[in-house]
Amino acid sequence: MSAVVTVPEGTDHPYALSHLDSLESEAVHIFREVAGEFERPVILFSGGKDSILMLHLALKAFAPAPVPFSLLHVDTGHNFPEVLEYRDRTVAEHGLRLHVASVQEYIDAGKLRERPDGTRNPLQTVPLTEAIQHHRFDAVFGGGRRDEEKARAKERVFSLRDEFSQWDPRRQRPELWQLYNGRHAPGEHVRVFPLSNWTELDVWQYIAREGVELPGIYFAHEREVFARNGMWLTAGDWGGPRDHERTEVRQVRYRTVGDMSCTGAVDSDATTLDAVITEIAASRLTERGATRADDKMSEAAMEDRKREGYF
Amino acid sequence: MTIDTLRFATAGSVDDGKSTLVGRLLHDSKSVLTDQLEAVEHASRNRGQEAPDLALLTDGLRAEREQGITIDVAYRYFATPRRRFILADTPGHVQYTRNMVTGASTAELAVVLVDARNGVVEQTRRHAAVAALLRVPHVVLAVNKMDLVDYAEPVFAKTAEEFTAYAASLGVPEITAIPISALAGDNVVEPSARMDWYGGPTVLEHLETVPVARELTTSQGRFPVQYVIRPQTAEHPDYRGYAGQIASGAFRVGERVTVLPSGRTSTVKAIDVLGRSVDAAWAPQSVTVRLHDGVDISRGDLIAPSTSAPALSRDVTALVCHVADQPLTVGQRVLLKHTTRTVKAIVKDIPSRLTLDDLSQHPAPGQLVANDIGRVVIRTAEPLALDAYAASRRTGSFLLIDPADGTTLAAGMADGVR
């Protein structure tokens, strides 16, 4: 007979797992399911905090063996130099294999056209999906979280994509218990989101607990920026400032790290992890609402990009 | 004391105001941030609505906003100073049963919404039945739109009584009925001044205080092997660890264990919890277990204490909820995924289909179609170590998968092997 042990509320039972331990355990379970069931998985790695966290969890999941996945970075050509440096250092440190899909190469080859607004984030979809086809990746880990955005709140942990990488929100497989169904036809692949149930605050608290190193742009520093669409953008060769825009040096930090052309900095004095956590806990703006221009394009901007194959 | 997490699911018929309730819960508990609220106000104005439509907070897809309905399950995260919440927001529309099964499979509490003007309807009984079948420990009946029945106590009392009697007969262990108006905000987060006859908690207060009795540890340890870790490096030439998430119970170093289906026995040499060596570990920790003997173990095997190893069987009887558009028929060849093990199987019989309204059995339906719940008998190509779903939601559940295109056909809840 099986006896269910119930724990009285409010007691520190030895079998209780902390919130972060539960999230960690769940994410590790997801990584191992993919390792057990797929032939050619890859981790999308941008050098942003969510992908850094994914890699950290993958390293823990398979230790003392190496991570059995390679990494894929979709390089927009407008990345922060500090982030690229971090990326290369991390890859070397852990003996990982990195694939780079370059938006700039697509533009140079005439396969993609620069957008009038200079934003390259939506241009990532084609190099990403072609890299998946070219390398025949069958599982692609993304750092997307359901708390980020209302279309992402509808995303499964295992999300089947067709041979065009398209997401069809009306035809998602039900996801029951912790039984993930990774079956797919040749040419199809599965996007896997091990951080689905994490919130922005969870990510930061876990990074603090584990002492994970992050690129410096996540912490307050002085930077030459200019205002565009209500955000502080970093001045640079990518296309800013324009004639009427004026640069100034401000004390800022980044909440998300994406393309320089669409990722805004926030005014901040937070130079330590603790200060960042305090700042986020008190913020009345979401991460994306505060700093991502691409999500402001329309009410369904994220859904539309995801349908086309974006992560 | 650590703040715990409550996983809960909502269920309700179309137009019962479920999106509004969820929007109200998020809004009034101050879980909506300024930019999200601005986006909703902007979208509401564009639609010519005077007040912000809180349903727009949760209806995240284009088609949902266009049609004003919720299409698919969405997961939302919010917290109060007392507790963290993971909400599976399930639609009440077309594919109601499978969507609710999806949300309820991991929920510790279900909120069933009814329209005060209509009382308990067929869908309400379906929702109660699904919660009972999936063994969701707590059910809340939210009688909504009390503003449209003049906040009259008798209307609430009649519905609450009818629902409680029905749900209790299904074996739902705990039922709480709350009269609310999601639109006006009565009894969702703030107590209602217009229903002073009601002395119970608001919805949020109940969610914050309901005791969460999890199946933390059944007395039986269950460890499905997910992946074998063999570094074969100079530093770790002989390391061989079995990685997985403990499904139930606890494991200790030195414990005698049996590996299924082979039946070989060994002793636990070490347990590594993500880089840290421990003497004992328990569900739902993800760990790596090492054994003393070099027994042959691979993904899909189950490690259990030798004193309480489960029986093996190739004959499975279970209740299944059919979740696919194509039917499930007698004689059909399927794949069965149980923990980390996927095996070939054949549907030998479908003895009955359940009518959720009164839980009566319809004998020999021949097939199950989308949203049907029925009893099945399945023969598997290899033996499985199944527990009863009643004993463990983790080792008693399984999926049926179409081998041709990978579609998830059905969610299974095993009777257990005798």
UniProtKB/TrEMBL annotation, chain A:
The keyword S-adenosyl-L-methionine does not apply. Keywords: ATP-binding, Nucleotide-binding, Nucleotidyltransferase, Transferase. GO terms for molecular function: ATP binding; sulfate adenylyltransferase (ATP) activity. It is an enzyme of class 2 (transferase). SUPFAM superfamilies: Adenine nucleotide alpha hydrolases-like. Residues 288-311 are annotated as: Disordered. One of its GO terms (biological process) is sulfate assimilation. Residues 41-264 form the Phosphoadenosine phosphosulphate reductase domain. It comes from the Bacteria. Its EC number is 2.7.7.4. Pfam families: PAPS_reduct (PF01507). The keyword Nucleotide-binding applies. Belongs to the PAPS reductase family. CysD subfamily. This is Sulfate adenylyltransferase subunit 2. It comes from Streptomyces nitrosporeus. The gene is cysD.
From TrEMBL, chain B:
It is an enzyme of class 2 (transferase). Its EC number is 2.7.7.4. One of its GO terms (biological process) is sulfur compound metabolic process. The keyword Nucleotide-binding applies. NCBIfam families: CysN. InterPro entries: CysN_GTP-bd, CysN_II, CysN_NoDQ_III, G_TR_CS, GTP-eEF1A_C, P-loop_NTPase, SO4_adenylTrfase_lsu, T_Tr_GTP-bd_dom. PROSITE patterns: G_TR_1, G_TR_2. Residues 3-217 form the Tr-type G domain. This is sulfate adenylyltransferase. It comes from Streptomyces nitrosporeus.
